[in-house]
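Weekly puzzle thread! Below is a chain. First person to post its structure in token form gets bragging rights.
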Amino acid sequence: MGGFSVSKRSEKQRVTVSIYGQQYTVVGQESPSHVREVAQTVDQKMREIRKRNPYLDTTRLAVLTAVNIVDDYIKVVKENEELKEKVKQQRTTGDE
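Winning reply:
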């Protein structure tokens, strides 16, 4: 499983992105375009949640954003597992 870290060290590939008005240097092995897409998605989600909850401080907004994104992620992982199981069963039984 891949991952990112925020670091000031110059190891691996570094990409500077903006999330909710703050600059972050992201260090990892992913392509710069992928890192920018991830950052843009987080920024967009934070702004959507802020519109619905205008009185949240930035820390609570960030945590609520993380909870929403992880909720989406878990649903996608479960759906993927169910589809893999369905394909496996179809191959075993010959059903289409």
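Puzzle host: Confirmed. Bonus trivia for everyone else. DSSP finds two helices and three strands in the chain.
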